[in-house]
Design brief:
With about 400 residues, the chain is α/β, with parallel strands linked by helices. It has helices spanning about 35-40, 50-60, 70-85, 100-115, 130-135, 160-165, 185-200, 250-260, 270-285, 290-310, 335-350, 370-385; strands at about 15-20, 25, 30-35, 90-95, 115-120, 140-145, 170-175, 205-210, 230-235, 245-250, 315-320, 325-330, 350, 355, 360-365. It has two domains: about 15-35 and about 290-385, Aspartate Aminotransferase, domain 1 (Alpha-Beta Complex), CATH 3.90.1150; about 50-285, Aspartate Aminotransferase, domain 2. It is about 35% helix and about 20% strand. The structure holds pyridoxal-5'-phosphate (PLP).
């Protein structure tokens, strides 16, 4: 592994040989339960047979095609995706990563509106690069929604937080229903921002890279807020580990782009292989009833984690929804202890996400995670707590 750049901390010294469902297997045959679904992507579980088969079939037919040519799978996937977003006459574009999809929404909404300012909610991640990754303060406004708790104002009433912003220069709001930090904004600030944006011609852009495809117990996180976005970015779970992302948009937004001189081109835009994967993932989520399952299993796991938090000196909070859960480490746990705990869990056979910056463990398992695995993880966490 000496030629692999280490730009995200320690890589554990265990060779993972293969993956199947919720499990990874190392070269010595040890099994690990993946409560992180890779990077929150293997929604159906790793190496899902139907997805593997779709990849093999499509790869033998056509993987990739130039901009000016058609292939039926791409249209089918676009239709499936816009339908999921409640935009049956809308349009979709397929890209490769979540960051690209978010950046695409931002660029397009700016071009359509002819404005530059973007709003994002405090606690959101957005992207690894581009304007959304950098979020320079001259173009991005962070909306701190924490003072909105208990707000009694009616929708449309004057609000000092909203009055700080000149909405006539705002292209749009990029909204995440939780994402990597698992901080779900409350309903009220979202409703107020939505109202203001609609009054001034700004757009609502939902970033569903992490929250989409069932992770929050709905197809998309924005559904919890009763919002209808103008554009929706999706990735991660939609490829089940294969790098495909997409932006779906309303017909109105699409017409504004198609009727202008805007051009956008990337090598892997609308690749047939990614689209074949998307179609198979959507079909499998439906047939395996995974959106509902994520809600049910998430409630089961989160109730038990809450009990653990009450009894354990290691953790001080469990937050999140469905299978997007965060265990906050207690302030008394040092960063070195936290890293050690994470490694111990791995050696015991449990992969959890670990964010040193947030001092927290993340639980974003495949939506297929068996109940018994949740119980076993809780036993492991309880025994670590006893030994602390
Ligand atoms: C909410 C959110 N948006 C965007 C991204 C970026 O996606 P990608 O890493 O595929 O570029 C991530 C990645 O973790 C994310 O959590």
């Amino acid at each position: 592994m000496e030629n692999i750049l280490r730009c995200y901390g320690e890589i554990y010294d265990v060779e993972i040989e293969r993956a199947a469902g919720c499990y990874l297997y190392d070269a010595a045959g040890h099994r690990y339960t993946d409560f992180e679904a890779g990077v929150w992507s293997a929604a159906l579980g790793h190496s899902h047979p139907a997805v593997t088969q779709a990849i093999c079939q499509q790869a033998g037919r056509i993987m990739h095609l130039g901009y000016r040519y058609q292939h039926a799978v791409v249209q089918e996937a676009a239709k499936a995706v816009v339908d999921l977003c409640g935009m049956p006459d809308g349009r979709a574009v397929f890209l490769s990563s979540g960051s690209e999809a978010v950046e695409f929404m931002v660029q397009m909404s700016r071009r359509i509106a002819g404005r530059n300012t973007m709003i994002y909610m405090q606690g959101t991640y957005l992207a690894a690069f581009g304007s959304a990754g950098a979020r320079s303060p001259d173009a991005w406004h962070e909306f701190d929604w924490t003072p909105c708790a208990g707000c009694q104002r009616e929708l449309g009433e004057d609000c000092p937080l909203l009055a700080r912003l000149d909405f006539s220069s705002v292209a749009g709001l990029v909204f995440e229903a939780g994402s990597s930090r698992v901080m779900m904004p409350t309903m009220k600030p979202l409703a107020c921002l939505n109202h203001k944006l609609r009054q001034h011609g700004g757009m609502v852009l939902a970033n569903e890279i992490t929250t989409g495809f069932g992770r929050t117990g709905r197809w998309f996180g924005y559904e919890h807020y009763g919002l209808q976005p103008d554009m929706v970015a999706m990735g991660k779970g939609m490829g089940n580990g294969y790098p495909v992302s997409a932006v779906a948009m309303t017909l109105k937004a699409a017409r504004a782009i198609e009727g202008s001189n805007v051009r956008y081109a990337q090598s892997h835009q609308n690749d047939a292989l990614g689209c074949a994967v998307v179609l198979k993932v959507i079909e499998a989520i439906r047939t395996e009833n995974l959106v509902e399952r994520a809600g049910q299993m998430g409630r089961y796991l989160s109730e038990r984690l809450q009990r653990l938090v009450e009894q354990s000196p290691l953790f001080c909070e469990c937050r999140g929804t469905a299978l997007m859960l965060m265990l906050q480490l207690a302030p008394g746990v040092s960063p070195e202890q936290a890293a050690e705990l994470h490694k111990n869990l791995f050696l015991k056979g449990y992969l959890l996400g670990y964010s040193p910056a947030l001092h927290a463990f993340r639980l974003f398992p495949p939506l297929t995670i068996p109940q018994q695995e949740c119980d076993d993880l809780l036993t492991a966490l309880s025994s670590l707590s006893l030994n602390y």
